[in-house]
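Exercise (ungraded).
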Amino acid sequence: MTVGLEHYLVVSVMLFALGLTGVIVRRSVLVIYMSLELMLNAANLALVAFSRFTNNLDGQVFVFFVITVAAAEVSVGLALIVALYRKRQAAHVEDLRTLKL
Amino acid sequence: MHPELLLWIVLFLPLGAAVLITLFTQRNRELSAAISIGAVVAGFVLSLIFRAWVGWQPEVRESAVTWLSVGSFQVDFGLRFDPLSLAMLLLVTGVASVIHIYSWGYMKEDRSLPRYFAGLSLFTFSMLGIVLASNFLQLFIFWELVGVSSYVLIGFWFERPAAADAGKKAFITNRLGDFGFLLGILLVWTHLGSLNFTVLQENFTADPQALGTLATAAGLLIFCGAMGKSAQFPLHVWLPDAMEGPTPVSALIHAATMVAAGVYMLCRVSFLINAPALEIIAWIGGITALLSAVIGIQQNDIKRILAYSTLSQLGYMVMAVGLHGPTPAMYHLTTHAFFKALLFLGAGSVILGLHHEQDIWKMGGLRKKMPVTFWTFIVGTLALAGLPPFSGFYSKDSILALAAEHNSGLLIVGVIVAALTPFYMFRLVCVAFLGEPKSDAAGHAHESPQGMLWPLRILATLSIVGGFIGIEQLYGSQFHTLPLEPSPSFLQELIAPFVHAPMAAVSGLVAALVGLAAAWALYARATEDPLPARLGALSRWMRDRFYFDELYEATVIRLHDFIATIAAWIDRWIISGVAVRGTHGTVELVGRALRLIQTGSLQTYAFLFAIGVALVLYLALK
């Protein structure tokens, strides 16, 4: 059988759903963070797939940008998590409830 | 240069002085006093120059700038000069000048002297505004300003609760009358279409029925204003209490400003008031005159006796207006201004000499210790009592003659008052100045400084000659087309009343002599008042002012408190409770409900966010 656009998109959706589930149910901030990356890459996969199947390079260019920005975001995000841990001695979301009154 | 420019300067000089003192010279006592005195004396001099320049009958009778115009409705800020306003202008600036100068001696020790002089200047400015006003609206504004400045000055010693209350009482009582006055002005404006006195008079002459059935109401409503300012029954209660102010202020209020404003305004617009309204006005004047003369008999405070005598004399003036005689009213107002200012300043001199003792039964024997005060006071008393050849006799006689001509009931009232006036005044003189000193303070009394005695001498001179200097002819030229002819010689001028209206003159004179004799018989050697023993309950009623204050307390003030309680209840429960708290409560309740959504858990937010995105996608792609 030939691998078509639908297959790629299904994989992308599954990855995205996995990431979302991870963000919602996992308690460790670090794992939530990894799940977020998973969601980003699911989107990347979809973009690349569209690019390939429509013979348009725009999608791939877009993906490069996403990867670059994601790399920068990872460094900032990890730094934030480390700083948070130093301040609170905790890396679990239940402990981060200061937004509530 | 236009001569009317002078009048603009005269009007605004005292205002400038008040502003200058309030803003810049609060700390400098001498400078503040000098500015205030200088402004009003300069005003007097400029008024004299204006008078010399244009005469009593200036050709241009108005000088105005447009102040505001709304559609076809236009209000001017203008000055009106005719014999009436010019004479009044000279009277106000002249008497106010004398009182200002006197004040410097009287108030020298007071620590708030600059505030005092600022108030005095503001008062003078307001009164000049009333005198020169060319339309009703302007008159009303200055009318209110007089009320405000009287509040400031009567409550000058506001640390004393009595003074603060008296200021409040004067202002509120005046406002009560002014409410009617404003309604009257509006009524006149809607029917005659203008506020300007000249235009009003033209329109009214062209169509005397313009006010229709409301003519009487309009006249009485306008009179309400005068009733408040000139302290006529039943709004007379504020004037005796106003004695809480410094004595020169009392002199100013009683002589040149404030109470004169009511009578002046009535004379200014007397053409608007129809006969039935005038009848009522005359009777109110008569009642006021009689009532306050009777009350004055049993007062023991030197200033209160004078206050009730002012009320009584104002009653005369209002009665004269009501009897179709603005000329005698203004005549009496002018002479009364001279001798009443004199009497108040004399009383001030006594009060100062006795270290703020005001009870006449603690005075006595002041004739030797304060000769100048005594003799000038005697002149004022004789003038007030209406004995010839003092000015009061002539002006009072012109009113009695008017009453004899129009209304014999009021003539009787007038003659009775003419007998009561010398009675209470000579009671005051006998007890306070004659006999032996009745207290230590009186024994050690001393004459006042020259700065206070010269105003007394000036006013005493005016009180003596006020009957012969053509004041009546002057006012006559305003109100009659044919001016009254002055008598050819001085001697004829002297006996003129006996020639014109012998009945009124003789009865007035006899009444005055009877009153004088009675006072002499009762009080010449009295050490305590013999009247309470003889009159019993009546004397107590007189002393307690016929319980008018208590009556008002029980009726008007109770009713007012009742309405206020209801208003407070509505404010607290309906407006504040339902409207304000209701809105606030609803918002808070919604807020509390919505706050439950705010869990603080990141993952709940993420979940809700995901659901939201899914929902939007579903709706967008459907």
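Further reading is listed at the end of the chapter. For now, observe: The two ends of chain B are 90 Å apart (CA to CA). The mean pLDDT of chain B is 83.
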